[in-house]
Amino acid sequence: xxxxxxxxxxxxxxxxxxxxxxxxxxxxxxxxxxxxxxxxxxxxxxxxxxxxxxxxxxxxxxxxxxxxxxxxxxxxxxxxxxxxxxxxxxxxxxxxxxxxxxxxxxxxxxxxxxxxxxxxxxxxxxxxxxxxxxxxxxxxxxxxxxxxxxxxxxxxxxxxxxxxxxxxxxxxxxxxxxxxxxxxxxxxxxxxxxxxxxxxxxxxxxxxxxxxxxxxxxxxxxxxxxxxxxxxxxxxxxxxxxxxxxxxxxxxxxxxxxxxxxxxxxxxxxxxxxxxxxxxxxxxxxxxxxxxxxxxxxxxxxxxxxxxxxxxxxxxxxxxxxxxxxxxxxxxxxxxxxxxxxxxxxxxxxxxxxx
Length: 355
Prior knowledge:
- With about 350 residues, the chain is an alpha/beta fold.
- It has a domain at about 5-165: Spore Coat Polysaccharide Biosynthesis Protein SpsA, Chain A (Alpha-Beta Complex), CATH 3.90.550.10.
- Helix content is about 45%, strand content about 15%.
- It has 14 helices and 10 strands.
- An 8-stranded mixed beta sheet has the order 3-2-1-4-7-6-10-5, sandwiched between helices. A two-stranded antiparallel sheet has the order 8-9.
- Strand 1 (about 5-10), helix 1 and strand 2 (about 30-35) form a beta-alpha-beta unit.
- It is globular and about 70 Å long.
- The protein starts with a strand and ends with a helix.
């Protein structure tokens, strides 16, 4: 099979060598550079990548992705879309070919989107940016996704066990373009529930509480917004916005709704525990962290956050036991928290103080 990696780039010279090392298992690498002012194109060409430079104006990610896909040869069997701040673990091609079937449309693979300060994994989910050459097109100005536009059905999605892609972004890179592009995306497709959810979340990031609240309520009202996990996330974000506006009772009500919507997720249980922690309701903290810890199957979607699966539940339980005079139980939880975050000096100090 002919495997081709394609990407877009702009001012990413710092990542070129690492990325090309990682992508070297492909038969070919092609890149659309959208206007670098550093030596990104030259460095890529020196490593053997095919590079075309073209400004995308007005900027939108789907247009850039589609233009980069056009650079992939027509006879490619498998297209692998990555960004220059991403790295495959060695052996990814062999694992991909083992999973691929001639009729496949896309492949899903494990993706680590973020890492904790100690180097452990943060947010992890399964991604789907590997696909057959013909019939697919990228859509949406931002948070773009592949859409099948070929004849008939796209073919099955295969799971490529053993393919692992890590995301190591530049922390100084601005994401200011995301909000206007999400607003554009919702204007273009106002009933796309996924985009409306993302826009509400982005308003939350920007501390635009009222816009966040109205947008997420609209998300929940859409008839296509049926995925319980994402609906619960909207409810959790609504709770955060209401608490920020000084309405803790409404925040609590939305968290109860989130729990009812997706009781199989740790996130809503832990969000309630954190709210009660801030309110110094220690028995409530113990109850809701206990319910969260009873969930042992970690989901593989992007909704799954790192903190509920790390030291946080035990850390909160430690604090709750300590404040209610149960020092031995507090020490047990402190040790569990430290075992999950062994480089955290605060957790180490908790163990030392309680021992």
